[in-house]
Input
Amino acid sequence: MLLHFILSLYTLPFTMARGILQDSNTSAIAKPNCPTHCGNVTVPYPFGIGKDTGCSLDNSFYVTCNSSYKPPKLFLGSTDDNIEIYSISETEFRIHNEFANRCYNRNGTISEDYDWSIELSAFTFSEKNKFTVLGCDDYSIIRGRNDGGEFSSACMGVCSKAQDVADNGQCPGVGCCLTSIPKGLNYYNITLYSFQNHTDVWSFNRCGFAFVGEEGTFVFQGTNDLSLEGGVWERIDATVPVVVDWVIARDTQNCSEPSACKENSSCYVVEGGTVVDATMVTRVTPILIQAAKVYINECDDPGTHPCYGDCKNTPGSYNCTCPIESFGDARIENGCQHPNNSKSSSSIFIIAMVFGLLAVLSGILGIFYCIRRRKVMKL
Output
């Protein structure tokens, strides 16, 4: 028992640290009685599944869950486009990518032509995205709009021979062009053009592509991508998301105004608006408690929130302490130690030490007695 107590004191700081980390990881949660997941995607408040369900902050944050897919897929609800959401974090979310492409026949006529445009009513595209153009006879223009007005930029991919195209993953402008886009765009349109309709490069490059995607997710594979042998269409579709920024209140430069940031949560300013930080809450964030007027008692759920001592519920969490006249970690079984037990253990230890010393002394006296007796017998 004494050894167990010493070990519990040693491991207590690590147990508490692990609990804090686990709590911070579980802070992304939906409103009470609202779905928390759609397939493999966690849906944290202020987002919520379903329009006019009360699960989202407002209808700009509502999302839809399509269960006809296996597993179900999450889609942005506040737009007419069918935009799939891959993940949602504290200040951004990632969506499915689409691209513009134009393909040509040997004689230069167009066999396929597809421009791409997208608009977000309540969110903006992150500057983590880059504008990429693939092709040896292609240039593309991207046009967009943000609070500063209209935006336009271009990128050009050119080459005359397949041997000129490197396959080191870089986009230096030879077969692949990469450029930045500004922060805050809520709309963009991509259009592809060609200088000579690929007539001079048709043998190894029949199509041009242009897309916006998260920087670092697309790796250029040289002529394999230009000739379509590398499955570039499928790779862009599957591995290159678009990053979208979200905030609670756009264009708010301070946190003094009434907003979704309530007591026990903090509001902080980011470029483009304000967001809510409630990462130190466990089961239900204070912002949700304020919004839903719901109070959850963690002490009623010992399976999820174990307590082998005195449990006291708190807003968004709970305290678990050892009973009076005991000490230790009440969140683990047999984690509380009583002083009486410790005294008994100490007493037993002292008694054992005393008897041990007596035994040693008795042995030493016995040896001296035997030595003295032998000397007497010799005399």
Summary: The longest helix spans residues 339-378. The two ends are 57 Å apart (CA to CA).
